[in-house]
Amino acid sequence: xxxxxxxxxxxxxxxxxxxxxxxxxxxxxxxxxxxxxxxxxxxxxxxxxxxxxxxxxxxxxxxxxxxxxxxxxxxxxxxxxxxxxxxxxxxxxxxxxxxxxxxxxxxxxxxxxxxxxxxxxxxxxxxxxxxxxxxxxxxxxxxxxxxxxxxxxxxxxxxxxxxxxxxxxxxxxxxxxxxxxxxxxxxxxxxxxxxxxxxxxxxxxxxxxxxxxxxxxxxxxxxxxxxxxxxxxxxxxxxxxxxxxxxxxxxxxxxxxxxxxxxxxxxxxxxxxxxxxxxxxxxxxxxxxxxxxxxxxxxxxxxxxxxxxxxxxxxxxxxxxxxxxxxxxxxxxxxxxxxxxxxxxxxxxxxxxxxxxxxxxxxxxxxxxxxxxxxxxxxxxxxxxxxxxxxxxxxxxxxxxxxxxxxxxxxxxxxxxxxxxxxxxxxxxxxxxxxxxxxxxxxxxxxxxxx
Length: 451
What we know:
This protein is of the alpha/beta class. The chain has helices at about 35-40, 65, 70-75, 85-115, 125-135, 220-230, 245-260, 275-280, 295-300, 310-315, 335-345, 360-365, 400-405, 420-435; strands spanning about 1-5, 15-20, 25-30, 55-60, 80-85, 135-140, 145-150, 150-160, 165-170, 175-180, 200-205, 235-240, 270, 305, 325, 350-355, 370-375, 380, 385-390, 415-420, 440, 450.
């Protein structure tokens, strides 16, 4: 069996790993690139493998950097099954069409206002392309071994990152290969903890936070402080948020803070149709998280959900302090861009980033101190207070990864460290080699290895 790293090698986006097993080809994840232009251009480039020649796709989870290339993959000829957990299929049925819609909308705005070099600007794929992808999904429950073909089977194990997120345990003949996808945290307030794995011949592990630890700051207390300070100076809070996972965690904290009257009773808007749909799914997957049905209902009801464009525009006319939760989490697209244009120039307001900002994204630029950013072809001043809440991450940090690895009873023959910026991957490699003395490899883009 050979693996070729078609994405998330030297970066945290575009996860794609091609397994070649005899005359069979399986793609693990099918993610879209985000961030730097040179990475985004890979979305448009021809893949080293013909989609029509791939027999199956197996997904770790629904986030766009792991699933967002699927509509184009299907459009370009992939006819096979897309295997996922039931939760991942439900989320992809929401997220992929939303991604297509956003791309169509961005192309429309670029053509209308002339801020693209391409004439005309085109979407990578459309809402219809995304909808046409969903019928190819085949769901496999957690912990059920599925035989894909002779001497090749896989099992989904609980990864704790978001609803439906899975480790993929592959058995080929007498060898075990494990893909972690994105690994969740041991003590997440909502998600259950990741499954324990005791052995593998090959381990492909993420390293998003391989060079740091999240710290011990209570995110609920930090969020209360941010809201109280901002409201006191008459400002509003804008939270760019991933619609899956992060938006629900924020709502959970806000519902608790409001119930205990630890923050003022400000209007809370969730301006993301996708986040609205996703939040309702939590009640159907109570076996994957720590919340009961009543708790799901309670945090769902703490906010007003905005669906129409007119309602979204109306939010930016409020003169009183409000809280806005809106996608996308890295401020690369979606309705949050309109709210940043309205609120970022005012020093009274606060922009709160609660998740990882990939290098080259608009969110990373703001977090790194840029005093103006380009949105819809115009430079927007960033005068609002910028706050980063590191402890809300849904990714395991370096310490949590090492603790998870300590459960292995025998060392993997090869550990491939992926899904991290170079510094983070190198740091995790050093930590693993120092603590466990395992053979670690940081693969390069398009590198092929035998397993």
